[in-house]
Amino acid sequence: MIGEFELIKKLTAILKEDTIGDDTAYIKIGDKGLNITCDAFLEDVHFLIHYPPESLGFKAISINVSDIVANGGKPLYGLISLMIPDYIEERFLERIYEGVKAACEFYSLKIVGGNVSKASKLGIDVFLIGEVDRFVSRNGALVGDDVLVTGTLGDSYAGFKLLTSKKAYEEYELRLIERHLRPTARIDYINHIRKYANASMDISDGLSSDLWHIAERSNVVIEINKDKIPISNELKIFASKNHLDPYEIALSGGEDYQLLFSQKKEHFNPFLDNTVIGKVIDKGRALVLMDGKELERKGFDHFKKR
Amino acid sequence: MIGEFELIKKLTAILKEDTIGDDTAYIKIGDKGLNITCDAFLEDVHFLIHYPPESLGFKAISINVSDIVANGGKPLYGLISLMIPDYIEERFLERIYEGVKAACEFYSLKIVGGNVSKASKLGIDVFLIGEVDRFVSRNGALVGDDVLVTGTLGDSYAGFKLLTSKKAYEEYELRLIERHLRPTARIDYINHIRKYANASMDISDGLSSDLWHIAERSNVVIEINKDKIPISNELKIFASKNHLDPYEIALSGGEDYQLLFSQKKEHFNPFLDNTVIGKVIDKGRALVLMDGKELERKGFDHFKKR
To answer: Residue A172: which H helix or E strand, with range?
Structure first.
């Protein structure tokens, strides 16, 4: 099977649409700009059935909010397509919806409908509509821009590894697990992205792969420095105890739902939890360099082995 | 497990939303009214994997267009969430998208994005946005209204039975199969529904069940006559050869994607393929009568046995 991104390209070529390639799609209704997105959250692909059901509902919403925010949108309305296998109890579904409700309150978002369907595995497919004054695409990075990320990277992957490898946890491990199970999308950055970002996306596949997405869509050369990548203390402890490189985890881990964006140097805001990890140094070709060498893409692709 | 409709009620009660209960959800963006919907189309639940892939793409779009139209909307934009198991070849996916493309052209609709995901079974979850000047709900039926359906009913169910029971077909059988595999949503009725319908929905679960939905949401008594239900010649032949009652098939079959609506008597338009099957005769309670007796609900419910 070909990779996920080539597949999307092939299928969208059939529809002859050129609007596909960002986290969300931009549409105009009257004089209002909207961005819309959907992201399926599926058992055994994105989560395991023994995870707390509230966290499944919360995360299914968060991963979609993250896409809306990445393009400068503010989430407004959503629908949920729920796929329910025989072995799921009604109480389990109610607990999923408790998580959905908590997420909707946190993000000021309203679920207005959806549908339920029998299925072989549990699936929560969420559709969101956001309003967006200025749609910030992946394709706007300019030479001279700083390249930034929000928060810290790699925690979610470490949390996932911990979740699937042991049963009793230390305090720092529980914090990593929490970041995997219940990521919060960066709605606090909506205004900043709208005003200042030239290119933006969320980090869902992994930093290395997502940097390449920006480089390719903007047709620019990005150079980053490995030691600038923000790493949490929890991830440092995890990596050290497991003899791993925390920067490698941050580059390839995925599911961080932090933002990756480029902006003019003067727009740096030191009060936010954002970090300059590199710069756009050239245009006319797509390339990502880390400390002077081409960066390998190691992000998540459903259809390829890691 | 409780039934599909009770389940939806329970889950939406958790979110405290009162807007759920129609084929689509109404939202207002600026001064524009929109209706949005999603309907999952899943392998082994809604289709079998040996069906022609083009028909899967076409039908996945049609069933969603049908929901938009049922509430008086005109479909504009869509997203597709594609769930792909290992055993699906790239060519099969391309053929699905050929069907999606044909549907988009037919319905003047644009797919602007979506996502692909690995899954255990094939799934096509479509999300549509329509524009709607006047949202026509299930809850507006008035005493004195005629109750009408478009087209003929029961063909799709007969087609499904033929598809799954034999391999070589006569001409009339192929026409029934075609109606199951590639239903066309009634976009030709958009203006009529917007102007004249007091209550409206599409017939996806089966006429008897869908009549009850209107009766309950409008809190009215509907009386219909069995022999008024429009039956195609193909279904008559099918029923007669198989010693079945074609009216029973029409009442319980489902997946017709015709419209069921109520309107004032004077709005009847004899140039359309619509048929008056009954009348709204009382209000203050929900009841459906057929030829003077309470009509049994025999529509499709995912979570109950037929």
So the answer is: helix A171-181
